[in-house]
Amino acid sequence: MLHALHFKGGVYIFPLPYGKGTVPLSFSGTRPPDMVTYRAELHPDPKLCIRQALDKPIGTPRLNRLARGRRNAVILISDISRLCPSYLFLDELLTQLHEAGVADEHIRIVVALGLHRKQTEDELKQLVGEPVYRRVRVVNHSALSEDCVLLGTTSMGTPVEINRIVAEAELRIATGNIEPHALVGISGGVKALVPGTASHRCIEHNHALSQKFTAQPGQPDNPIHRDLEEALRFAPIDFLFNVIVDHQRHLIDAVAGDVVKAHRLGAAKAANAFVVPVDRQYDVTVVSPGGYPKDSQLYQTVKSLKNASAITKNGGDILLVAQCQEMFGNGIFQFWIETIQDRSLMVAKLKEQFVLGAHKVLHVDEVLQKHRVHMYSDLPEPIVRLLGFQPVADLQAAYDTLTADSSKSIAVMPFGALTFPQTNRGLT
Predict the structure, then answer these.
(1) Final residue before a domain boundary, out of 273, 300, 323
(2) What is the pTM of this model?
(3) CA dist., res. 149 & res. 146, Å (int)
(4) Given 243, 273, 303, which residue is the final one in a domain?
(5) pLDDT tens by residue, 34-54
(6) 352 and 263: one domain?
(7) How far from 329 is each of 264, 265, 358, 388, CA to CA, in Å?
(8) 3-class DSSP assignment, residue 254
(9) Where are the extended beta strands (E) located within 4-72?
(10) Looking at the structure, do residues 216 and 246 belong to the same domain, yes or no?
(11) Is there a cis peptide before residue 44, judged by omega within 30 degrees of 0?
């Protein structure tokens, strides 16, 4: 997974992921930092991996049998902020639907945005691939209540309000990639449906459960994830196809079949790859989300910051390296940071009433209560300061200053969005 280290002039040069490129970071060969990263073995034949999963689905018939007699179908796919390479497997799904008698004109591909931003036409083409885009209608999800249908309410009170196209389809196929998720434990599976194609109020109610319950990254057995799966009673997913990929979208594994049974198998494989045991904490942690798309906006970047916090000593420093060319990535998050004068007031308001989008302030505050954050990015300096971070103009100079004391322990997390440290909570 690591980029190659280059030794030059007595120092190692490490190309740290940044946007669609890298930025160099040098460190002494006599005092190298610990590299904390996920571990995974890539599948040698991605096409074979996809076919094997589809040929032997878990808990359901093959898709070409399951789809027989259905007049139409909808396929849910991930948006551009996710690593899922939908363009690799959509043609296989369409082939099986055709074998069952479902024609292109009766298939819709819905980008399961949740409350993420809409995709441009070029991005839609990029997501599905030009050939599929020319054949099948691809649409962005809308989280407006008028574009959704209320189907029921979960036992925890979440209104299951689903995109009308999805709710009215005779066959629902969910796709996505599986990786640990701080809020619900694990991505993939039912998340394509909720929050992917749910209304704003549905998503907000489920996410608000995070103020009462916590999830362990890599594990789906928690109240917040169970609330998502309860939505399946009202809008069943007929077939699941999920992948596990590295930070460059290379296939590690794939699962298909029942939305819960297949997902559980994939979740175990993803946890094995991305949940990383770490037996110490560090004075200084350098973290990159892993480049584009994980560092394209603050909304996503905060996840990597939390992962870095887990291995950083109380009172320690985090050097965050994230391009954030899309700025905040969420208008509500931006509005709170830019207009509410005091972070403690923001936190108090959010604890009184959960606000989706603004809830990222809680994550930022949780880190800043324990660590100093220094940020190297494309963000304007005032924005970095409003977040409570120290802006960094020269990455190497900042690193050298933070690590000048030879007694300090140092870690580098080059793929922070996919590296979920599992630490001894007693460490300080």
Answers:
(1) 273
(2) 0.92
(3) 8
(4) 273
(5) 999 999 999 999 999 999 999
(6) no
(7) 30, 32, 11, 18
(8) strand
(9) 6-8, 11-18, 21-28, 34-35
(10) yes
(11) no
